[in-house]
Amino acid sequence: MTLDVLIATCRPEGILRVERMELPMVENVRYIVSWQLSGNTPVPPTLAARDDVEVHRVDSVGLSRNRNDGLSRSRADICLIADDDLRYTPGRLKAVIESFSARPSMDVAAFMYDGSYSKQYPSIESPLIPYPKGYYPSSIEIAVRRTPLTSRLRFDERFGLGSGVFHVGEEDVFLLSGHHLGLDMRFIPVAITSHEGHTTGLRRISDPRILHGFGAVIYYLHPLTFTLRIPLKALRLARKGQARFLTALVRMYSGALKGATINPRPWKKKQ
Fold it and tell me: What is the pTM of this model?
């Protein structure tokens, strides 16, 4: 099986971060870099000289649009979502391929990453939706087997960094779309990469679009109980020092209402 690692990056300094990833050369693995707002910056010679690295300048803004560009360019059996600040090893990339090879019916997998601020994960393999208790996915953990059905999977471009609507939640809506397509989606307790620093789920929240996104995602995941779940989420954010309780509560309810109004079923959106 073949694997494409789809790296999303942005601005001139982004391609330098990709270069610092020191991408390992692995048989049957390619790297597809989608580069937004690249300007006139040249591709570093260390990347341009490699046959297993493709760099594409993308004329758009927004993380989800960037990820969709990578998905549209992939030609491998498996696509792995990636950012420009990760570390891979040959063994970990092979583990992605081996996980799909060992599970012929699996369409989508969410793996693990490690680092200074790595998350808490379930200890055993489990279905992805509903999420295992205490678990939330990150885009950089997600891999997709390319089939005619999964080719319909795309990130909702109103979600994610730079979207202008909801600043988070693109991976949640992506997985929910897969669930409604009837895909076999599993959490696999295998670490596939390393990431240093905080993810959005752990940072102090100053952008209201992040809280709006949390609210919309809670509504999409739990349409019957979102009114009860949003106060619990606001309380957890307050206890972690990420946001004030009342601010989080109001903004998440606002996000849930906005999500219900603009598109109550984002997985039905035509691609």
Answer: 0.91
